[in-house]
Amino acid sequence: MQNWIPHEYQMTALRSMVSLPGYGLFAEPGLGKTSTTLAAFSVLKDNGAARAMLVIAPLRPIYRVWPSEVAKWADFNGLTYRILHGPQKDARLTEQADLYFINYEGLAWLEKALGKMKQWPFDVLCLDESTKIKNTQTVRFKTVKRLRDRFSRVWCLTGTPAPNGIENLFGQVFMLDGGERLGHYITHFRREYFSEQRMYGYSLWFPRPDTQARVQAKIADITLALRAEDYLKMPRKIENRIEVELPAAALRVYKGIEDEFYAELASGVVTAANAAAKGMKLRQITGGAVYGTEGASALHDAKLEALADLIEEQEGQPLLVAVQFQHEVDRIREYLGDKSIPYLGGGVSIGESNRIVDAWNAGKVPVLLAHPTSVAHGLNLQAGGNAVCWFSLTWNLEEFDQFNARVYRQGQTKPVTFHYIVAVDTIDDNVLTALRSKDRTQKALMNALKKD
User: Fold this and answer.
1) Are 306 and 242 in contact (CB under 8 A)?
2) How far is the C-alpha of 342 from the C-alpha of 361, rounded, in Å?
3) Residues 365 and 428 in one domain
4) Domain holding 312: CATH number?
5) Do 223 and 244 have their domain in common?
6) Going by C-beta distance under 8 Å and a sequence separation of 6 or more, which residues neighbour residue 405?
7) Is 49 found in the same domain as 68?
8) Same-domain check for residues 378 and 319
9) Residue 452 lies in a domain
10) Together in a domain, 332 and 346
């Protein structure tokens, strides 16, 4: 066990977290958000300024990341914690501890349980992966909003504060200051900083030319943005685009749905549900199959062939493969002739997931399939390999960045290669373009907020 020795940027964050009622630490993976937060809480607790901290985080971090950080450092080893998940959560909530960990899906239960308690058990709130509450219309945002005033301090932690644009900041900043800087209502925030355009029967909001600069200036005093490349010696990052062409039969199916999709857009009668459904259908086709009333129907093996070639080129070196649909998992296993290829995604228990991760990091898993939503947070996979393949892409920049950061993070000693299998002249190109557009917004925000 070692002592926690902070970097200067961690000390900058620690001082602000201790002195301000709300603070956002927007730091990329590997820069010590968790340990810095534990240090700030320990300082408050040692000085009688805090009793206990509630940490709301995705499920995996509450089981793996936070407990391991408490155990790792001698400075925090005396802190006690309870995980508010599973059949014993009611009893654990009543037990005295320094830290309480709960996932976002447990908020409804927590609010109800707290309503029955005579004494509020914690006074510091930490929202880990705070983009989970970026949408002000969600139940989780509204629940946290009702609870936030009971806390003396609120901290937001994330490496991707604006994954889909500057509007994503509103909900997170509101939790930090109660609406002081960006306003109390998302509608007012939009009118102040965005221009409205009506398209296809919906209101779309576009930031004005000065929006980013104005918002950054407003929140600069309560946020700190840190990029890994500025503070850590990171290995080289290599990107490899692997292009495939859809066979004629599959292309006809694809074009039929695509033409219908764009025809509806042009007519102005498309609904959000139809647009999402058709976009999803197009992405399924590029992956090789499409779901119908009787399950998935195979259309082509173009991406499977490319993946098999890539695995052969790896010559036994581990490859982390991002997939979006269950049919991709099934067909990859079948095509490669190995139904034992492990998968991290929906339906995999915490115990089985931990076993797979340990085997991967021990170098015993040559191919690991994973859904970005399931592994976007709380996993360190850099010990097991240095190659990532996107068999199919996600629209979600946060998931995209976080998934890549499972391998490209502190502790990785080799150059990391990111392979993108792209069906040319399809929606795959649109997804990559969208990701890169959002990425420019994200990097601009991070650069503007970071402090020397």
Assistant:
1) yes
2) 13
3) yes
4) 3.40.50.300
5) no
6) 28, 29, 30, 159
7) yes
8) yes
9) no
10) yes
What does the chain come to in residues? 452
Torsion angle, CA of 17/18/21/22, rounded to 10 degrees?
10
Structure tokens at 368: 């690991």
Same domain, 107 and 135: yes
Q: Give CA–CA dist 117/224, Å, rounded.
A: 35
Residue 172: CATH number of its domain: 3.40.50.10810
Q: Same structural domain for residues 27 and 51?
A: yes
Structural domains in the chain (count): 2
| Residue 346 φ/ψ, nearest 5 degrees | -60, 140
Same structural domain for residues 325 and 188? Answer: no
Two tokens, residue 51: 């009793």
Nearest Cα neighbor of 99 from 130, 121, 115 is 121
Residue 61 counted as domain residue: yes
User: What letters, b where the CB count within 10 A reaches 16 and e where it falls short, cover 134-161?
Assistant: bbbeeebbebbbebbeebebbbbbbbbb
In a domain, 43, yes or no: yes
Instruction: Tell me which of 184, 217, 232 is where a domain ends.
Output: 232
| pTM (global) more than 0.85 | no
d(CA 102, CA 110): 9
Q: 314: closest CA among 375, 386, 373, 261? A: 386
Taking residue 412's Cβ as centre, other Cβ atoms within 10 Å add up to 20
Question: What single DSSP character describes residue 2?
Answer: B
Cα–Cα distances in angstroms (integers) from residue 5 to residues 11, 35, 294, 355, in the given order? 10, 10, 58, 31
Sequential pLDDT tens for the chain (452 residues): 789 999 999 999 999 999 999 999 999 877 899 999 999 999 999 999 999 999 999 888 898 889 999 999 999 989 999 999 999 999 999 999 999 999 999 999 999 999 999 899 999 999 999 999 999 999 999 999 999 999 999 999 998 898 878 999 999 999 999 999 999 999 999 999 999 887 656 777 889 999 999 999 999 999 999 887 777 777 888 899 999 999 998 888 888 887 776 655 454 544 445 666 777 888 888 999 877 767 778 889 999 999 999 999 888 899 999 999 888 999 999 999 999 999 998 888 888 888 998 898 888 999 999 999 887 666 778 878 889 999 999 888 888 888 888 888 877 878 899 999 999 988 898 888 888 777 666 666 666 665 43
Q: How far is residue 267 from each of residues 175, 197, 263, 433, measured CA to CA in Å?
A: 40, 17, 6, 25
Of the candidates 384, 388, 390, 382, the residue with the CA atom closest to the CA atom of residue 409: 382
Q: Among 232, 258, 274, identify where a domain stops.
A: 232
- Amino acid identity for residue 87 in this structure: P
Provide the residue range defining the domain that includes 178: 8-232
Q: Is residue 253 part of a domain?
A: yes
> Which amino acid is located at 118 in the chain?
K
